[in-house]
What we know:
By secondary structure, the chain is of the alpha+beta class. Strands 1-5-4-3-2 form a 5-stranded mixed sheet.
Amino acid sequence: xxxxxxxxxxxxxxxxxxxxxxxxxxxAANCVSHDALATTVDIGGLRQVFEGYFASFSDIHVVIDxxxxxxxxxxxxxxxxxxxxxxxxxxxxxxxxxxxxxxxFDRVRDGRIAETWVQMDYLxxxxxxxxxxxxELTKPGPxxxxxx
Length: 148
């Protein structure tokens, strides 16, 4: 299986089917994951991260928007939708639906993902859940001229 297919299958079989037990089919035992919310150094830690997402968002679903590969790296742009049914980050469930975008880079070694970097728009997700305020941009006023 080529590297892009490996990442696609990981996202579908693990994330979309909400089954972290499938991780070992796609990730090396010592897979390192770099994520703004959690960095892990092995497949056990990665499994805990996935299970935490599944507990917080029971209908979580990922769609791959685009994907490119070069050598051992795969870059994936994705959109994630979910409903906060289990409470995210220890907060009571809001039952709000969220949609966030993100990018993921995976390094493949010996047919398994050895390292992954994930950047999701967590600020947007927290705003959609009401955890942080939305920032409103205001229109700039008329140009101000400086006179010497």
